[in-house]
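thread: overnight batch results

M.L. [08:02]
morning all. the overnight job finished for the chain we discussed friday. pasting input first so we're all looking at the same thing
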Amino acid sequence: MESKTTQQVTTEVKEPDNRFYKIRNTGKCLSEGVSLLTEHFLRMILLSLPISIPYALSSAILAQVATNLVAGLTPQIIILLSVFSTLSFLTTIGMLALVYRFVEVRIAGKSLGEQTFKSIYDKKFFGLSIKALFYVIITAILAGIAIGLLVLYSFIGGKEMDLDKTTLKIIGLMLILLVFLIIAIAYRNVLPTVMLQKGSYVRPYLDGFKKGFKKWGKMMQISLLVFLLVGVVSFLLSAPAIVFTFVQSSALTSQLSGDAVNLPDHFETWMFITLLVTQFVTFYVMMVYFSPLSFTYASIMTEEEEAEGAIPMV
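M.L. [08:03]
and the structure it wrote out:
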């Protein structure tokens, strides 16, 4: 009887804790965010194709059209930029909704490998899309206000400032940028709060921002880790595309100056293929940029629950 009880206790201890809402360190938040997308990698790729393909197409076309801007704006270029910028924007919204739809599957304790297009692209997905749309718009407005304040600050003093005042102005600018950085890191907790917290559309912004400040150290750590990971991978992936666009822009500039330029045959075709593949892979790199935030949010929420003496969330 005693050995049987010991065996049951050992089994319970060894059983993996797959709860979404639990306390994790920063490294675990990052690893689980990556695992969310890679555990059933092929199924994840398949389920995301309705968004990743139009995202890659629109982004590749925008990048290729942008290289022709050195020749000036034409009505055709303006139309192309407008149409594909809108498509790129909408697919970015879809990408955010898709990440958190996968998170909802994880919260429910289900496997991504069992999901279908019908189970993913349901009413919950479109509800998340609306939340993501509002989040992006509000974030863009706040970023615009911040940039506007920096522009106004740059006009203070005018051209008649002496060396001492210029030095003070530069120091002030650095302090303002530091404040903006601190606020931006805390604000990163707003996205998962908006996407996962039920109820009002306004309250999650306040709750996420407040908890982001309260757990600023944790938010700074996950932001730095994700930024380094995604930044390095994105740079390596984008290197061929950057070379292509630089060569194309330089060639067009030289032609406008009257110089003879001979690019290899089918250069623009290969450039578009490179851009298309790069943007397709970038789509999934961006998903990795956002997914760890959801696990950081879950950890913060659990810490808050336990600090208040409540029963931990399960």
